[in-house]
Design brief:
Layout lengths: L12 E3 H25 L3 H19 L5 H9 L7 E3 H24 L5 H20 L3 H10 L24 H23 L10 H23 L1
Antiparallel strand pairs: 1-2
């Protein structure tokens, strides 16, 4: 069943807080695994993440109640007041995610093929998860609403409703100046620190250095063991 029937709502709904928590969990693990796999030159962690991502979204599009990431999300936000949102737009967005995951599954898991297309898809998935988990912006839901071309109700964050901004939502000129100043400051700090950077003494990528140190570890331990004998 897509979504859940909640008293007071005439359409199947989902808990937006739970969905955002699930997206945050997937975002964290996806980014961590892929960056770690990249630096370690290992394909297996990335393949396992793709398999997990594919299975999770496959379950979502048919019955999100049993999606592992959404179950974890439900546990995390169990003490927060639910925020109900229409289930149909979310399902459309999940179909997009499942399609992207299917391409990654075929090319990387089955064909062991890495290409710019794979990196682009990976980047798109991470951006979509980040947008939803951090800002509550479901880009797939927006596309769904545009394609349907009819009045939508119960959208996440109330984006379907036409409303005026409250004073607390308005960005004041001084705030923009502070934001721009912060960006300029970071750029200046980066340029300054870059001048004082020294090349790595070992002359190798960090992950290669760790690999070499790992191989040297047994040799370093042998004298200690012999000393005990």
């Amino acid at each position: 069943m897509l979504g859940e029937n909640v008293q007071g709502y005439d359409i199947p709904v989902l808990n937006e807080r739970e969905v955002r928590a699930g997206a945050g969990i997937l975002f964290f693990f996806s980014l961590t695994v892929f960056l770690g796999a990249w630096h370690a030159d290992q394909l297996l962690p990335g393949q396992m993440m793709i398999v997990a991502f594919f299975v999770d979204f496959l379950i979502r599009v048919f019955n999100p109640c049993f999606s592992p990431s959404l179950i974890l999300g439900r546990i995390v936000v169990a003490h927060q007041t639910p925020e109900y949102t229409a289930a149909s737009p979310k399902r459309f967005a999940w179909w997009i995610g499942l399609g992207l995951a299917s391409i990654m599954l075929v090319t990387i898991v089955f064909m062991h093929n890495m290409s710019l297309l794979n990196f682009a898809i990976c980047g798109v998935c991470i951006v979509l998860l980040f947008m939803e988990s951090s800002f509550g912006i479901c880009l797939g839901c927006i596309v769904y609403n545009k394609l349907l071309k009819q009045e939508m109700t119960l959208c996440a964050g109330g984006v379907c409703e036409i409303k005026h901004k409250e004073p607390i939502q308005e960005v004041k000129p001084l705030q923009l100046i502070v934001l721009i100043g912060f960006i300029v400051f970071l750029y200046g700090a980066f340029s300054l620190l870059q001048q004082y950077q020294h090349p790595k003494e070992h002359g190798k990528p960090n992950h290669q250095l760790l690999h070499d140190l790992k191989n040297q570890a047994p040799a370093l331990e042998e004298p200690v063991e012999n000393h005990h004998h």
